Structure formats: C-alpha cells, structure tokens
Amino acid sequence: MPKIRTSRTKPPPEGFEDIQDILEEYEKKMRDAETESHEGKRKVEAVWPIMRISHARSRYIYDLYYKRELISRQLYDWLLKQGYADANLIAKWKKQGYERLCCVRCVQVKDSNFQGSTCICRVPKASLKKGIVVECPNCGKITTAYYELTPGCRGCASGD
Fold it and tell me: In terms of Cα–Cα distance, which of 27, 49, 26 is closest to 36?
C-alpha cells in the first residue's frame, strides 16, 4: 500500500531563510520555462530550458555545501529531500572526471546513439575534428572543436 502523505511537514532547518530568495528565483524561472510555448520546437528542445535551470539550481546547492561550506548538513539533506537539487547529478559531480557533467543522461549508455557509448558532449574537444559542431540531444548544449569562446557549452568532459 502506498504511503499516505499528510500536510504536516517538518519546517526547514536553520539557514534556509538565507538562501530562500535565490531558490524562489530559480522556481520562478522554472515555472516560466515550463509554461513557455513549445510550438515550432523539436520534441527534445522543449525540455532544454528546464534541464539548464535544474542544473544551475543543483550546482548552486552543491557549491554552497561542498565548495563554500555555507550551509549545514541538515539543510543540505533537507534540500535534496524536498527536491531543490538533483541528488544523482550531485553524486556524479563528487566523482573524479565528472566535475563538469551537465546532466545525468549524458553518461547513461542506454541513451546514446551508439550502444555502449556516452554523449557527444562528454568527448574531449581534442578528439573531435576541427570545425565540427555537435549539439547534445539530451541537454541542448553545443560542443565545438574550436578553442575560442563559443555560445553555449564547450562540453562537459573533464579533460577540456
């Protein structure tokens, strides 16, 4: 039998008030991205803005806890439990070689075009032919073999 949810939830731990405004701003951006029109877009393009906002919010919470050490463990666990950050993505960021990972789907081999491979944005730029521009189907980030500044992601391979 499924667990019945009640309206009684624990209040947020101490320190939540300090980051609440920023998290509400991310929530507002997320609502705007969800209600945005999807006409004229490919099926995968409709979720790209949502993926980017989710990534930014998860990175913000990750940086607060692991890099800057500004929030407590209780607050960090509460934020993950409430769904403010993607726990699976943060778990990957803690592993060597995945520090710049853009989304969890980019490392899942079953979601790639070639069986047993990873996403194109995980391939180091040095391995790509010069001038080739490849768009990640999972998150919409753009990987180029040029070493100059380009709009979008330059890939999430840790060796770049």
Answer: 49
CA dist 122 and 136 (Å) reads: 9
Instruction: Quote the pTM value.
Output: 0.80
Q: Give the separation between CA 79 and CA 94, rounded to whole angstroms.
A: 17
Check residue 146 and give its pLDDT.
41
Residue 10: DSSP 8-state: P
Tokens of 46: 């409709």
Rounded Cα distance between 106 and 111, Å, is: 8
150 confidence band (pLDDT: 50, 70, 90): very low
Strand partners, 143: 134
Does 75 have pLDDT greater than 70? yes
Q: pLDDT grade, residue 82 (50/70/90)?
A: very high
Domain ranges of the chain: 16-94
Most confident of 1-10, 45-54, 78-87: 78-87
Distance set, CA 147 to CA 120, 131, 150 (Å): 17, 10, 8
Spatial separation of the C-alpha atoms in residues 148 and 146, rounded to whole Å? 6
* Residues paired with 133 in a beta bridge: 144
With tokens 């899942």, the residue in question is 108
